[in-house]
Design brief:
With 198 residues, the protein is an alpha+beta fold. It is built from three helices and eleven strands. The strands form three sheets. A five-stranded mixed sheet has the order 2-1-4-8-11, with no helix packed on it. α1 runs antiparallel to α3. It is globular and about 40 Å long. The structure holds 2-acetamido-2-deoxy-beta-D-glucopyranose (3 copies) and copper (II) ion. One 2-acetamido-2-deoxy-beta-D-glucopyranose binds next to loops.
């Protein structure tokens, strides 16, 4: 029972430590920055869109500019403001850090022009980001998913506190943050208690 208490405390602490990694979409030309991301399970990859009209969709390594069935899809996020990212952003949560997640922008010829990226590429072998970029350059078409925008992730609006510097309205995201803070407090208390038991 003590042991399970510690495990529960660690699990809560682990959740709290998840990182939110920002990826600039089209911030400097036809790029994802960074294009190669290392993330752990539970980390969130937060795509923030810059002018003029980009998207992000999940692909397979074998087919760089085609949607992966069941993969994530942000939809197009047009914006004209060069001073800040669009109010709408897209967040993907890493569920398996051992599985590489390849992605691309479905706009025009952006994928063929190298607007692609990967989360957790294989540590060994030839499935590298460079190889993916090369394969993308040879793709005949750049295909957008037919699934609903936001599929496989979360589209966040201006009120969420993400993608905008000027929002303040409390939202479910705010509630989630409060919950996380409570979790920190809880894990501290539970952790201390478990420690005292030994
Ligand atoms: C953004 O690009 C998509 C796909 O090319 C297009 O359907 C949509 O109309 C564009 N939106 C704007 C505001 O340009
Ligand atoms: C995670 O991904 C790896 C590599 O694709 C796969 O072998 C493994 O089964 C996956 N684990 C889960 C829990 O889906
Ligand atoms: C990548 O490696 C596999 C074997 O692991 C091989 O079959 C394939 O031809 C290689 N591809 C390239 C482009 O080198
Ligand atoms: Cu693009």
């Amino acid at each position: 029972m003590r042991f399970s208490t510690i495990i529960a405390a660690s699990a809560v602490a682990g959740t709290t430590l998840a990182k939110d990694i920002t990826v600039g979409v089209g911030k400097n030309g036809l790029t994802f920055e960074p294009a190669e991301i290392t993330a752990e399970e539970g980390d969130t990859i937060h795509f923030k869109f810059w002018p003029k009209n980009h998207s992000v969709a999940q692909a397979s390594f074998a087919k760089p500019c085609e949607p992966l069935e069941g993969g994530f899809w942000s939809g197009f996020v047009p914006t004209s403001d060069t001073q800040k990212a669009a109010d709408t952003s897209f967040m993907y949560t890493v569920t398996n850090a051992s599985a590489p997640v390849w992605f691309y922008c479905t706009q025009g010829q952006h994928c063929q022009n190298g607007m692609v990226g990967v989360i957790n590429p294989p540590a060994r072998g030839n499935r590298t980001l460079d190889a993916f970029i090369e394969a993308a350059a040879d793709a005949e078409q750049n295909i957008s998913p037919t699934s609903t925008a936001g599929e496989g992730g979360e589209l966040m609006g201006a009120d969420s506190g993400y993608g905008s510097s000027s929002s303040a309205t409390p939202t479910p995201t705010g509630a989630a943050s409060a919950l996380q803070i409570n979790s920190v407090a809880l894990s501290g208390v539970v952790g201390m208690f478990a420690y005292l038991l030994f």
